[in-house]
Amino acid sequence: MTELLTLNSIEHALVHCYDAPRVYIGYSGGIDSHVLLHLCACNSVLKTKLIAVYIHHGLQVEAESWSGHCQDIAEGLGVGFRVLRVNAEAGQGESPEEAARNARYQALKSLMADNDVLLVAQHREDQLETVLLQLMRGSGLRGLSGMPHCIAFGQGVLLRPLLDVTKQAINDYAQTHDLKWVEDPSNNSSAYNRNFLRNEVITLLKQRWPQCDKTVARSARHCADAQVLISEQAQSIFIDIFNKTDQTLCMSQLLVCKPSLQALVIREWFQTLNLKMPSQAFIERLQAEVISARTDSAPKLSGQGYCVRRYRDKLYCLKGDLLAPILESHWPVGAGSVRLSSGQSLSCQPSSAGISVVQWQSSVITVKARKGGEKICLPGRQGSHALKNLFQEVGVPPWEREAIPLVFLDNKLAAVGGLWVSAEFYSEQIDGCIRLFLECEKAVIA
């Protein structure tokens, strides 16, 4: 017997909507999102908050007419309507499906203000497809948990109120209410993985196991429950290993963990950094080539736009596009800061200790990159010191050293970024000195 879809049957899934300032619905014009929109528009309380959002990917020639159709439907139901245009072209390493999904969700996320709700119309067969896709990718518990019913999204929450509803119930509702929807011709192409599962595999599976969408959804919930327990364990360990200041992992503490626990901590790390989960092969290489490397080596492992490096007792995750080289430049007379070719900004601010203001204002100031072999005399210390030794002394990682500019006054080394001032130029005078500050986008992924 086919279950009946009504607003009452999904009322529990809409609990967040009644206190929300705005309720957005991702509305493609297809049958699933049309049914969800129609259901919600039947509720007088929800209707006043509803805004249907059509994402114009620009990938189909029919997209413009679909946008018009969606607007007509929304206006006919008496709810708000918006069109968001996105660039859904696939980047390097992205599939067309992934690029479209990322662009869509990024656009929707930009709409969300505090406590807003986004409703999307994924149903139980979509959950089945998701779990099967993750299974084919060799995913762990997190992937096999499928899509959650509710998740934080931007400044609000994303809800999937139809996730426990069958596709047949959605089709029956659309027929009963004589809804008109659009059909995306690309859904018929099995060139896309999800379409292949939907058109070729799931149809066959359902002939043998008619309730497979229900049973696989149940398995996904079991995986989600197990993942919660494992994440809680990993999180408690991760907190002790993770350094919030520079977003690194403490190597000595990580090495105490068994390899299986190391993998959990690494995944928790990537989750905290908002990175795509690393594959099992990547984690195994990371453990073998970086974590287990000799302490006197400088190992690194790159992939997916980031690079994991080890320095002393820390494990860093760095952006693939590190800072550009510093080109020699002159500090404009009277300027409070200078923009460097590397993308960094070097500024001077009033201080009671540092470079004398009089000396600063009367000198020709030049900013240069390190060439190697530079030395500096520091106030309160005997002799001159090689910059290389000073960097090692304070624990500046090798890849960050080349991004620290040297400041020369009348061709004499006066300061190293915001770290040190030469004894020759150092002064202590109340409001008579300046200090240098270096600002840049962090190499560590945030």
Structural write-up:
The chain has 446 residues and is of the alpha+beta class. It has 3 domains: 8-216, HUPs (Rossmann fold, 3-Layer(aba) Sandwich), CATH 3.40.50.620; 244-319, Up-down Bundle (Chorismate Mutase Domain, subunit A), CATH 1.20.59; 329-439, no CATH class. It is 38% helix and 23% strand. It has 15 helices and 21 strands. The chain has a 6-stranded mixed sheet, with helices on both faces. Strands 7-8-11-10-9 form a 5-stranded antiparallel sheet. Strand 16 (375-377) and strand 17 (384-386) form a beta hairpin. Helix 11 (259-272) crosses helix 12. Residues 441-446 have low confidence and may be disordered.
**Count of strand segments:** 21
Largest sheet at a glance?
6 strands, mixed
What Rg, in angstroms, do the CA atoms define?
Answer: 29 Å
Order of strands in the sheet with most strands:
3-2-1-4-6-5
Summed over residues and divided by their number, the pLDDT gives a mean of 89
Overall, the morphology is: elongated
Q: Helix tally?
A: 15
Helix-strand layout with pairing:
Layout: E1 23-26, H1 31-41, H2 44-47, E2 50-56, H3 63-77, E3 80-85, H4 96-111, E4 117-119, H5 124-136, H6 141-144, E5 150-153, E6 156-159, H7 167-176, H8 193-208, H9 212-241, E7 242-243, E8 248-250, H10 251-256, H11 259-272, H12 280-291, E9 300-303, E10 306-311, E11 314-319, E12 329-330, E13 337-339, E14 345-356, H13 357-361, E15 365-368, E16 375-377, E17 384-386, H14 387-394, H15 398-401, E18 406-409, E19 412-416, E20 420-421, E21 426-439
Helix pairs in contact: 1-7, 5-8, 5-9, 9-11, 11-12
